[in-house]
Specification:
alpha+beta, twelve-stranded mixed β-sheet, 31% helix
């Protein structure tokens, strides 16, 4: 065939959105990867398939009116930008994404993305474990994931975990890793800002840093018998090589962090 330039193929695929092909193409790519677990590396971890969800904000260099957002990589500059929510599979492969103009709430965007993933991967075929950053801390979102039988790991905001009296069933600190860190577990009742009469109780896992003595807490619904405290911490911090480094490589090598319009 004809050896088309990559820019020509890129332009052609972008034009397909006007024919309503954008989501069809995305679903086709996701189905391709989800149909190849040996390539994808999405083998269940401790009985569950892990997916990582996060938002990246990219500056939009344009003279036309566009919604603005805070771009962290530009020092928090507020400018025209787009927010893209990505869903990465267990080994870091980007499977699905959706883009919004300006700022978007991860909690408000993630449900639709997870429903699409579940439809393509097979409804109820395996236990799903969603790993998200602190932006996803919302009791109403935890309830929505629970009702969909999706488990999660989300770091809690400091304002919620400052009062030690709110914790229950706390275990003793146990060694974690080879740098002197420690972990412990317990339970915590979280108030729902949308329905204060119906709080949700979650399992919490704490990690105390040896060097600073600071403690960070992570919420989940999975039981300790299946996922020990150390496993919860391990799965969360795999976000960096399996998701954050993917963003960094894409931004640095092919400049996915900036686009023009």
């Amino acid at each position: 065939g004809v050896g088309y330039m990559p820019s020509t193929l890129d332009k052609f695929t972008r034009e397909l959105k006007y024919a309503g092909m954008a989501q069809v193409a995305q679903d086709a790519v996701a189905s391709f990867w989800l149909g190849r677990p040996s390539l994808l590396g999405e083998a269940p971890v401790e009985g569950a398939a892990v997916v990582y969800v996060d938002t990246t904000v990219s500056p939009l260099w344009t003279h036309h009116f566009s919604r603005c957002a805070k771009v962290t990589r530009l020092g928090g500059r507020v400018m025209p930008a787009t927010s893209t929510v990505f869903l990465h599979a267990g080994c870091g492969t980007p499977v699905l994404y959706k883009t919004w103009s300006g700022q978007v709430s991860l909690g408000a965007a993630v449900e639709d993305l997870l429903d699409r993933y579940e439809a393509l991967g097979g409804d109820g075929t395996v236990q799903r474990l969603i790993v998200m950053d602190r932006e996803a801390h919302a009791a109403w979102l935890f309830k929505a994931l629970r009702d969909r039988t999706w488990d999660f790991i989300v770091p809690l905001k400091k304002s919620v975990v400052q009062d030690p009296s709110r914790f229950s069933e706390l275990t003793g600190w146990a060694p974690y890793g080879d740098r002197g860190d420690e972990v412990c577990g317990g339970r915590l009742l979280l108030n729902d800002s949308k329905d204060r009469s119906d709080p949700i109780e979650v399992r919490v896992v704490g990690r105390r840093r040896h060097r600073t003595g600071k403690v960070a807490w992570y919420a989940t619904l999975v039981e300790a018998e299946a996922f020990p405290d150390a496993t919860i911490i391990d799965l969360y911090f795999k976000r960096w090589p399996l998701q954050e480094h993917v963003f960094k490589d894409g931004n640095g090598r092919v400049h996915l962090d900036a686009h023009h319009g």
